[in-house]
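USER: For my understanding, would you kindly supply a protein sequence with its structure tokens?

ASSISTANT:
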Amino acid sequence: MTVFLALDSSTETMALALSSPAGRWLFEAEGGPQASARLVPETQALLAQAGLAMADLDAIAFGRGPGAFTGLRAACAVVQGLAFALNKPVLSLCSLQLVAEDARQQAEAEGRALEGTIWVAMDARMNEIYAAAFRWDGVRWHQEEAPALYTPGALLQRWELRPAAVAVAGSALSVFPELQGQALEGVRQWPRCQSRAAALAELARQAHARGELLDAAEAMPLYVRDKVAQTTEERLAIRLAAEKPAELQVERQSELQTGSAS
């Protein structure tokens, strides 16, 4: 009997999935700052619905990112804490691949199998996008482009260099209208996830079937943005740099006026 729990809080939606031979239990709710406080209670509630206990788990999966810094830390901390306490292995899942899997499930529900390369493009805030490319071979996912951080313009250039994608999924399609252009002409699009929890459960099942088990100490978030905030000194330097041209312009005008008067 294989029982595994999967958690993801890399976006504004917190997703949990519990799978066992007896069935599958899914939960989704608002994530963000609330995730750190809700992950454990909602996990306990999910186990109670299934009539299981923490000790019944064979493995614990989590979305490692990329995604929101606070959400990634929360999921990783909870998974590590549970895995260490229960002496259970961990399954580390790509949060962008989760979006690709959701798109695949939506495509199947529409009666049109997803074949070929799919790009995932998720809003990363700060006018940037988390993106990666994957290919489904009918059994498992293959990563074709590793998760990276792009500006909208840089991502469009990347798509123009590699026009073989048959689909694009992710929130960036709705947030950045400039992505809608010739690069996506004829490309199937899924801007919204139907069920992150269902996709999470399927990715965890696939990873477990492949034996991708890690020690709890190896459960680490994936960050592709080196910096999420500026120091006080950096903000001051940027403000002074912005003010400098205005000061120079005032000085120049003063010099011109003095020269005219003389």
Observations:
- The first strand starts at residue 4 and ends at 8.
- The longest helix spans residues 232-261.
